[in-house]
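Sequence in, structure out. Go.
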Amino acid sequence: MSNFKKYYWLKLFDNFFDDPKVKKLKRLAGGDTYLVILLRLMLLTIKNNGIYKYQGLENSLAKELELILDEPEEHIQAVLIYLEKTNMIEEISNNNFLLTNVPVMLGSETAAAERKRAQRTREKNIKRVTMSHDSHTSVTNCHTEIDIEKEIDIEKDTLSPKSSLIKDELEIKSNLDHEMIKQFIEHRNVIKHPLTQQGLNLFVKKLERLAAEFDPEELINEAIINRWRSVFPPKENNRQTKSYSNPTSATIRNTFAKLEKLQKEKQNYIEGEIQQ
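Output:
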């Protein structure tokens, strides 16, 4: 049974701590603690593709996470509010919360694959020692070829058949325009945050949900322009700002008209006084 044991890990990109959202979180009062809570939340979800299922152990998500993470409730509540504000967490269904960055940062490996990788590493080291008696040129060339072949084999063992690193193998399951969705997949590759199959499935569900109210093509275009990792509905205040322009101009014009009328009345009054 031990062959079916599986190991998971979180792969942080080299610019993770340079992400403006992460930097802003760290600069808040208590930011160092908040960053630790964020990382622990991410680790808590790695076996479920970045999704945390609220179990109802306490009367709120923050209190339940306080119990699990052994961190003060007010700190956890502050982190959850910040993540929601920056679109780093979203409720994808009833009591299911997705940490949006996690699906592209996951890695996993079975115990058998780990042993195979260790065996290949030992064989590689043995071959290097054996070939050290050859000329420097021969050794260098052979090592390069062996390393390339071994790395290819390791990737075949450890990568899922539907890995997001090979975008052609991603399957789009949606009645929406596939070419439009492919543009978003390519966009994620360009910003170096490629989609996994699970991540694509979650994205498509969200896009279909938003398509009931908004133009999905406009949502995707907006995400590409802003280099976002997902799509989001237009903010209400943006729409309101546009509607304010005409009434404000009309109000200004009316105000000037009233002032001009008052000025004329004042002038007429002064002239009447002088004539008397």
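Check: The beta strands are 6-10, 51-53, 89-93, 96-99, 106-110. The chain has three domains: 2-104, 110-158, 167-225.
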